[in-house]
Design brief:
Blueprint: E1 12-16, H1 20-26, H2 31-52, E2 56-63, H3 71-94, E3 97-102, H4 110-122, E4 129-137, H5 139-155, H6 166-171, E5 183-186, E6 205-208, H7 218-229
Parallel strand pairs: 1-2, 1-5, 2-4, 3-4, 5-6
Helix pairs in contact: 1-2, 2-3, 3-4
Bound molecules: farnesyl diphosphate (FPP).
């Protein structure tokens, strides 16, 4: 914790949590065991984020592509999510954590969606941190959904095409008030964005580690933040 400069904290950290399957495979365990262990890392990372004082954390918990996995694995991931929501409600409300979700949430199983919306409702007063779960999420789908919303407004003559600007598009995204991530972490050593927050990461710093998500410790998280603090961000401007 001492290596963190509290005056230069990222406002928003986004994480692609990858490597649960490989973690399990290396141990000769079923993939689901990797997700279970991954859920433990989620709890720890949420806690650490709150302790450090970073106000926005977004986790890629289930991508649009993840729907192609076996029924068994999809069901296990939904069960883990439901368990997480039940277990963490108290800690979230006590610690001022507001839960949000982005994605095509209408595709989630009814029980998961119901619990998700209840939890978002019960934590909506949280003012210290926003935990956003990207669920049934794809960056291209988010942009497409935004374009469709805007097209409807144009069709209804509420806006003119020439009025479509950056702000208007952001307002049509799933969570317009969410600031762009300052730091994107990806575990398990893949150098890919995998359809995550495509619009929002235009100037985001990227940190990739070969560590598999279930092995991603608090120490490594702090290391990623310390490295971010040593980078010079120019947002496309010259020196
Ligand atoms: C990638 O591992 C991870 C996921 C598909 C989902 C992430 C889910 C969790 C961390 C657990 C539950 C989430 C919450 C919010 C409690 P992978 O299966 O793609 O790993 P692999 O690439 O090694 O196969």
């Amino acid at each position: 914790m001492d290596s963190i400069d509290k005056s230069k904290l990222p406002t928003h950290v986004a994480i692609i949590m990858d490597g649960n399957g490989r973690w399990a495979k290396r141990r000769g365990l079923p993939r689901v065991r990797g997700h279970q262990q991954g859920a433990e890392t989620v709890r720890e990372v949420v806690r650490t984020t709150r302790q450090i004082g970073i106000p926005w954390l977004t986790l890629y918990a289930f991508s649009m592509e993840n729907w192609k996995r076996s029924d068994l694995e999809v069901r296990a991931l939904m069960n883990l999510l439901e368990q997480f929501l039940k277990d963490e409600l108290e800690e979230m409300t006590e610690n001022g954590i507001r839960l949000k979700a982005i994605g095509r949430l209408e595709k989630l199983p009814t029980s998961t969606r119901k619990l998700l919306f209840e939890t978002m409702d019960k934590t909506s007063q949280g003012e210290d941190m926003t935990l956003t779960l990207a669920l049934s999420y794809g960056g291209r789908q988010e942009i497409l959904d935004a374009v469709r919303k805007i097209a409807v407004s144009v069709e209804k003559k509420k806006i003119q095409p020439k009025e479509i600007d950056h702000r208007l598009l952001v307002n049509a995204l799933y969570q317009p008030e969410m600031p762009d991530p300052d730091l994107l972490i990806r575990t398990s050593g893949e150098y890919r964005i995998s359809n995550f927050l495509l619009w929002q990461i235009a100037y985001t710093e990227i940190y990739i580690t070969s560590t598999l998500w279930p092995d991603f410790t608090r120490e490594e998280y702090l290391k990623a933040i310390a490295e971010f603090q040593n980078r010079e961000r120019r947002f496309g401007a010259a020196d």
